[in-house]
Structures are given as C-alpha cells and as structure tokens.
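task queued by scheduler; priority normal; single chain, no ligands, no partner chains; default sampling; output format set to structure tokens
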Amino acid sequence: KLHSDLDKGVGTVKYTLSGDGAGTVFTIDETTGDIHAIRSLDREEKPFYTLRAQAVDVDTKKPLEPESEFIIKVQDINDNEPRFLDGPYVASVPEMSPVGAYVLQVKATDADDPTYGNSARVVYSILQGQPYFSIDPKTGVIRTALPNMDREVKEQYQVLIQAKDMGGQLGGLAGTTTVNITLTDVNDNPPRFPKSIFHLKVPESSHVGSAIGRIRAVDPDFGKNAEIEYNIVPGDGGNLFDITTDENTQEGVIKLKKPLDFETKKAYTFKVEASNLHLDHRFHSVGPFKDTATVKINVLDMDEPPVFSKPIYTMEVYEDTPVGTIIGAVTAQDLDAGSSSVRYFIDWKNDVDSYFTIDATEGTIATNELLDRESTAQYNFSIIASKVSNPLLTSKVNVIINVLDVNEFPPEISVPYETSVCENAKPGQVIQIITAADKDLSPAGQRFSFKLSSEASNKPNFTVHDYRNNTAGIETRRNGYSRRQQELYFLPIVIEDSSYPVQSSTNTLTIRVCRCDSDGTIQSCNVEAIFLPVGLSTGALIAILLCIVILLVIVVLYVALRRQKKKDTLMTSKEDIRDNVIHYDDEGGGEEDTQAFDIGALRNPKVIEDNKIRRDIKPDTLRFPRHRPPAEDNTDIRDFINQRLKENDADPSAPPYDSLATYAYEGNGSVAESLSSIDSLTTEADQDYDYLSDWGPRFKILADMFGEESYNPDKVT
C-alpha cells in the first residue's frame, strides 16, 4: 500500500506505478494506493521486483511528491523436490571387497532457497539395495555394507537412492535415482578339471604337429583372471606330445611332437597341469591355483605305406658302363602287422628316367642306356614303393646317381693359340705362358705335361719349358728374328694328362714375329710395314734428307755462336787493366771452431778411429784407409811415437810439404811420465837424445838441438 501525506482522503491524489512488472505482474489502485499481484509468483523464476511509485494531483497532473523506488521480494516456499541431475548412475566395485569400500557418490539439487528455512536441506537414504550397500545421509557416498560379496554368486546390483528436503522431516519433498553396481572380477578361484582322467584315441598315421585332442579346466573367474596355462608333467610319453592353450576357449590343445607307431607302442599315459597365469596374492591362503588331470592316449592301428630304409639313396657308376649293369638297390618294408610284399617302379617324369630300370621285386637299379658324363654328370629321379595288398598305399624316395668320368678326351691347349715374338728377342726369353684344359672331369691331382713334338725339337727356333705345375713357358732359342725371312712360326706342342689311360694331343701354337722397341713393347706386327719405305718416290726421299741437313746446319750454327760469345766475354775480362779487388769474407771460428782438427783420438787411444780424410789439407784423391790399433795401457810413449812416425813415413797420400801433427798423448801410467824436463826426477844429463837422429829427416833439427848442446845446470831456473 502506498500513501502520501498530502492525501486527505478527498480524491484529489492519484497514485501511479512503474518499473519491473508494473501492469503485468503488479497493479495499483489509483485512489487508495493498494498494490495487488495479478498472477502467481515463482521465486525460482524471479526472486524480486524493483518498482517506482508517485503521487500526482488529479487536476493538474503534477507530482505532489518525488518519485520513490521500492523492491518487492518473493518469499520462498518448499515447492521444489530434490533432483539427481546425473542419474541414473553406473558404478563398479571389486568382489570380495571389505565392508565400507567406496563405491560412488551421488548428489541431488534442490531449487528452493537454501537461506530460508529447510526447503533446500537434502537428506539421502537407500530405498532398495540393503543390506549390500549403505549411503551417507549428508554426503551421498555409497559404500559396501557386506563383506566377501562374490561375483560368481551375484554380479549385478540395482540400488534405489532417495533424496528428501526439509531435512527428511514429514512433509518434505523427495526425489529418487537408480545406481547400477557391478562386482568386478578378482582371481579368487583356481582352475579345476571337471574329471580326473581324459581318454583320447589317436591314429598312428597322425602327422607331427597336428592336434590330436583337447582337454579343459574350468575357472569361474572372468577375463585375464580366467587365463589358464597347461603343461605336461614329465613322465611316460610326455616327450612325444605337447600342449598349448587356445586363447579363445582356454582349452588345452594336445599336439603330436613325434610320429606314432602302433607296432612299437599302443598306449601312452601322462599328466597335465592347469594353472592361472595371473595370481592375486590376497588369495594365496585359499590354496594352490592349479589342478592336475591324467591323459590316456590309445594309438589306433592304420594301414600304412611301405617305409624305405634310407631317406635318400646315392649311387655311382662309370660312364660307358654296359647296358644292364646293376649299380645299386633300394629297400622298402611294410611295417604293419600283415607285412605285405612290396613292389618297386620308377616315377617317370621325363626322358632322363629311361636311362635306368628297376627290378619290381628286388629293387635293384640297372643301366638301360650308355651313359656319357660329358652330357649328363648326375641323374636324379624317384622310386615308388607300393604294397601288394593295397597298391594305393605308396611311398617315394629320391635316388641320385653320379656318373664317374673315364679318361677319354685328350687335354688341349688353352687360349691363346697365337702369340708373338720380338725381332730383337734374346735366347732364353719367355714369350708366352700356356696352360691346358681337359673335357674329362679331372680328379684331384690331375697333372699335365708339355713338350715339343719330335719333328720340332730339332729346329733351333723355340723350345718348351715345362714348369710342372700344369703350365709351361715358350722360350726363344735364337738371338733375334727377321720378319723379312719368316713372319710366322708354327710350334707343335704335345700335351699329356696323368689319368688312365693316358691321353695326349698335339697342339699348334702360331708365333708371329713383330717389331718392338728396346723395352720389348710391340710396335708393329704387319709384314707390309717392312716394305713401306720402298714405296716412297725419289723426290720424297730427297725432301726428307734435305730437311735433315737443314736441321743439322741450324744446330751447328747455334753452337758456334754460343762459343764465340763466351770467348769474347773472357777476352774482354782479361784486357781490363783495372785492378780487381777480391773480397774474402771468411773468418776463422776461433776457439769455438772444433771442426778444424779433431785431437780426441790422440787423447783416448781406446777409441778406434774411422777412416777419415786428413782435414788439415784438401787432397785431390782419397787416401788409403789406415788401421791403427789402440795403444794398450802402460804403453811407452816412445813406442807410440814410433808407431805414428812409421805411419806418416809409409803414408802414400802424405803431402810433399811439412804438416803439423799433434801428439798430445802422454800415456797412461808410462814410466816416462812427462815429456817435459821440468820437475823430472832425473836430470838432462841422464837423458840420451842420440836416438832422435834415428827417427829420420823429420826430426833432424830436433836431434841437432839436443845433440850438440851440453847440459848446464846453472841455466835451469
């Protein structure tokens, strides 16, 4: 209700309404100001409305008061039930789960105002699904309520959940949903054979690797928990059979590993073990997850074809063997209890098989035609054996016959059949290496020999040198050959093999005489080239000679001019009267020059000197080497000097002028000790220098000095 203070109740004031919902949802009495709702309100659709009201003068239509704004709020009532927006639900939980195992959480939504009263307060409960599951009233979490729920007993559960507002009180609205819960499988059951013994019947003709039977162990689990592995327990017959698992049916497929023979053994017994591949450690206490059963196999007798004694037969026969010669035999037997007779025949496929025949009863193979190894070295055909009692039962075997070689072809020279020799060839020169070939199948160690024929051995042109390794060399016997005298030589060569009987052949080698250079390189083998200059005309020969003369004149003039120029230069240099200053910038090495003269050998006599050229002079020719034995320890200096003196006197390469020789070695432990007279134990009077005159002209001055002067002790200081 709206009311203005200026309204005296006499009808002079008019009330107006504008804003949200004015005229459609709400209306106002213009005289009294009462506001009415003209249709039903829904808080969930629009919780409030904003309106504006004003009082105006009826006569002047002017507002008596400013426009005022007000809000009409719709008050909530519990008119909406809780709803499960995500329902129905699907959930799963492993079987054998403990009590309280989490399954799923459900949630219901109430559109009523949660801030006003309990209209939106929801409480959850289970209407269907107890006592297997429980639900939290506030959170809506569903959990297991019973332990050890077994999937193999019951797999699917349908639970009906209710959500009620008003806190679950009487008069509250409720909504429901369905939860479908599935128990997932765990490996809590071992495989079990439905029976302890399995009987199988297998024909003895079963092929190796074929399936001969199936057995199955039952596992109530599902998926990979029901996967079974089968194994044969080692024992009787276990090595003849194998077992695998069919992934689709989880059956054990028994296969044959080796062929069966009724006549050898009629029955086999072995055990098969079935076990799970994927085990769950939580259920080990239940017991071993495997089971064992016995398999008995009875072998059925079958009418079988004959059996050959060998898988393949290999025989040998010489070529040209007479027709009808027996070269071998094949043998087949009927291993069945009836033991029927066997008949043999050749499996005709082509004309090659007609070279041999076989005895139908004995199985002996003989030649039917003459064989030639050079045309066919090996024959390969099949022999078929059939039972007389049942000709349809046959078996086949391959027969290989190798034709052995008989030495019937002589060896022949291998290519080339033609070679060449240079005109300037020397005696004993090898011009060609030849080899031999034999059409026969040469056995190991086959040797060929080479020689000249008897009529060619007397001719002095060529010879054959057998290297005894299946090769031979063609050697020249003359010093040069002439193409003008003979262009071609025909050399007959006899070649023999080492087989029996010995075969030989005479082969002709053509030798062509060719023109070669000094290195032996062939330049021309055409005989027409010899007479090529003869065909030149006289004018052409004159022109060629004239060109040669002109070239010689040019060369002579060039050499003469070079000599004249050199001579003029020397004369000009000699006629120059000016002084010529020649600078020599060489300097001595001083004390550091250790290469001028080596006196190390004089100071160490144990070092054997190498044969060297004297370095104090530069002789024109090398001197002869001198072998100087080293001085022994404690050798007298006199002997040492005498030895050096004799060497210098006898040296033919000594210079004709005086040369300084240094004798710096004093001896090691010599009785003379020092050559100096200073501080000597003896005086000069005790010394006799007459021996110096015996040393030759080189020491004459020294002998005169010491020989004439008398010793005066007063002069010694």
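post-processing summary
- Residues 529-534, 606-628, 709-717 have pLDDT under 50 and may be disordered.
- The longest helix spans residues 538-574.
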